Amino acid sequence: xxxLNHTTVTYFIFLGLTGNQALELAxxxxxxxxxxxxxxxxxxxxxxxxxxxxxxxxxYFFLGNLSFIDICHSSxxxxxxxxxxxxxxxxxxxxxxxxxxxxxxxxxxAEIFLLTIMAYDRYIAICYPLHYLSFMSLKVxxxxxxxxxxxxxxxxxxxTVLAIQLPYCGPNVIDSFFCDVLPVLxxxxxxxxxxxxxxVSNSGMISLVCFLALLLSYVVILVSxxxxxxxERRKALSTCAAHLFxxxxxxxxxxxxxxxxxxxxxxxxVVAIFYTLVxxxxxxxxxxxxxxxxxxxxxxxxNRKKVISLxx
Length: 312
Description:
Blueprint: H1 2-5, E1 11-14, H2 21-51, H3 58-85, E2 91-93, H4 94-127, H5 132-135, H6 138-164, E3 173-174, H7 181-185, H8 193-224, H9 230-259, H10 265-289, H11 292-311
Parallel strand pairs: 1-3
Antiparallel strand pairs: 1-2
Helix pairs in contact: 2-3, 2-10, 2-11, 3-4, 3-10, 4-6, 4-8, 4-9, 6-8, 8-9, 9-10
């Protein structure tokens, strides 16, 4: 704790995405639109799943939770980034930076764990359909989601403690548009090699293990589908394709950032934008455009609103 007393930095300065003010205004409009789409698309899925009893199944229970995590994940970084586009000086307090780092890792880790559980859910549904309801009861699903948040919180606490126990007494410029562990560690006025190894191992191992578990589950699913009818294969592959698309979009950038930590900052910024903005926008699209049940439920929800408005 003595090292904490040597921390004299009270705020950090973001370099942001670009130094061109005209380009920043254009990016503000573009990313504001994306953020509104994230909120609208994911809220629509959450409301649809909550209101339609036919969607009260484990798969859609997890999908609703994924939409909630996507909203939280993007909201940790995007509003601050949008605000910074409007000002030449992009600052964040030391404690605000640590808070952003903490909640960023909670949401990112929760999403990785939840995507893994969703793959397990599909594995049980396709390979053991007769035992599905007993294996994936509401109680089990609730416990799994609770475990997701507990595991994510533990991971985030480890990352945050490793970062905050270092002294920060020199430079305070972060070459990014938000606070993440690795860019912040570069500003510590002490040797951070061992800490960086621990952090990269922690985050990289979680991403890699979950990704391999996902791949293994889908290999088993594909093998089991050979004995099914063409219609069963089509339905299963449609659901699995959407999930695999989302997994690749999210876990790919995470694996890149934490298995290649020495890449150029400009590349890291592009990758970071991808998993904080692009993936949460595409998740609702991936799960609704290819899912007839969700589209039918959205239509029913619209018709219900029309009926209510007519009565009024």
